[in-house]
Write a structure and sequence with these properties.
Number of strands of chain B: 0
Shape of chain B: globular
Distance between the termini of chain B: 32 Å
Structural class of chain B: mainly alpha
Largest sheet of chain B: none
Number of helices of chain A: 16
Oligomer: heterodimer
Radius of gyration of chain A: 32 Å
Strand order of the largest sheet of chain A: 7-6-5-8-9-10
Amino acid sequence: MILLIGLNHKTAPLAVREKLFAGCEEKKNLLSDLLGLPGVQEALYISTCNRVELVAVMDGEGKTIQGLKRFLSQSGGLTDQEVANCFYVYRDQEAIRHLFRVAASLDSLVMGETQILGQVKDAYRQALAQNATGLVLNRLMHRSFRTAKRVRTETTIAANPVSVSFAAVELAKKIFGSLAGKKVLLIGAGEMAELTGVHLIANGAEEITVANRSQAQGTALAGKFHGKAILLDDLDAAICDTDIVISSTGATSYVVTEESIRQSMRKRKNSLLFLIDIAVPRDIEPTADSIENVYLYNIDNLQDIVDENMKVRKKEALKAEAIVEEEVIHYNNWIKELEAVPTIVSLRAMAEGIVRQEMGKSLGFLQKLSEEDRGKVDNLVKSVVNKILHAPVTVLKEESSEVSSKGIVDAVRQLFRLDD
Amino acid sequence: MTLFSLEMILFKLALASCTLCTFGYLLSLLIKRVMLAKISTLVLAIAFGFLTLNLLAAFINSAGLTSLGSRNFFIFFAWAVSGAYLGFQFKTKTRLLGAFISPFILILMIAAAAQETGKSLLPENLQSWLTTLHLFFAIIGEAFFVLASCAGAMFIIQNGLLKHKKLGKMSRLLPSLHDLDRINHLCLLWGFPILTIGIIAGTVFAGLAWKTLWPVDPKIIWSFAAWVIYGFLLHQRLAIGWKGSRMAVLSCTVFILFLLSFLAVRFCFTTLHDFI
């Protein structure tokens, strides 16, 4: 039986997640301790800032769920109350589905984010290194990676940005193509402007200039980006020499006017200028948008793009859920087929035993034959046995994966007296 | 297999791959997938290969460079446009631009197919290495202007989307403004001097053949006007700094005006250039 116990951002408050995350990180031999619990055959655990999940393959149910819960709560030092409120337990098909959804980022705080797959892969790698996984979990994890990949390629769930700063980066790319070597001017040292600056640099933008009313704060922010700080008075000159402007001051009137941009456009020979105004009230005069080759986006424009993308993601999530469902059925069939495997093995063993026994009885007759003829008789007997076994084995596999292994396995064991 | 039948086969292959890539590009615009445009670009590259081989075979088949076949005139034009476009693909990521270029190439190829094989473009009395040179450079120069205006047209669309704050599927699909403007810039930069050489070759030929440098001829006047206007655009671009949307609108307008006037002259006047 596959069992999944865990908590995530939906079920547990940050304080609980923190405690459990730290507890799991601290425990060096968490996996071997887990495998030491009674009934646990294979195990792995995924722990990120948004979730801690424990996946285990058990050879029976009973007290093991309680055991695992206790194990987790002890690792994180959680109270009984917290355990009762936060943990969810999934079995078999539900556990498979949950894991696939996690890997495909359908269960994430920001649906469609790409980090989680890497974290799941790391968790698997860690378990693999400690020999904690086996037949069932290995296949389960590979299937979950496959599901995530299918969701990524067959839907556009992760295609468009869902944060304002990433939307700004995408816009910059649609204007400038590559951001390599582009110059960025930050007006005001706000947090959002800083974040957008970080994303722009990560995408290739090079020079960053910070213009701020408080020189000290400006210099501090510029230092972070290895850029230079200037005074607000030098703004017009700076705009002449920049490609992307991000403004986020607390000023109550326009910091940059249409006229000043018009003048700098002349000096910069009309090269494209991307203005991002994330301040409320606005810093850049809205009419500046009417200037040729100037693209002015305010916080609402960016938010609209994000909202639109969010809608697309939600729509794509439906497609993704269908893919997950398909993969769950696939894997579940395999698991059920697996239940028939011991019976198939003993069936074959029995048949081989009979062949060996009967051939032994006819040894006297067989020795009279030539080497070649003996081989032919051998093949004949084996192929008759195989042909007879073919139908029951096939039906056994099909019936197990499509319906249930229980009835058919019992029937076969009884018919062929496999348990005697 | 004779060289002539090889030439025909190559032409048909080129025509087929041009058709294929045109449909591919247009479909990519319709279903909004860049992947399809990328594949179409590959198909266009194959078409370009066939066109090159086709021109080579035609060259070996022909008596010499001076008696250019009228079919080869169109093939050469298609070759120049696709070559210039593919060349830019190394520098900029503007795969979707093919959706505007490839129909033009296809029209040229269909025009080529409509020409009789073996028919010479120029009447006997105009055949000279100078007229060949004139045609060669004029065609390449024009090919660059075709590209410049296609890039301009796409710039206008993308600019409209970004100005209206619509970062939708269409905007994501189309190339970036900077790349499109760069193509417009490079096309003017290369197209203008090449066209100049073409015009000079024509002038020299006119001087030698008719003892006058500028025969009064509607087509010549139009071509000269085109040359002057493109020269003006290039000057404004380099010296004054006209860029982006203004340049895109101008090069598109100029191109459409010239296309219309060319057709008007073609069907309403008799000119020295009647063969085109």
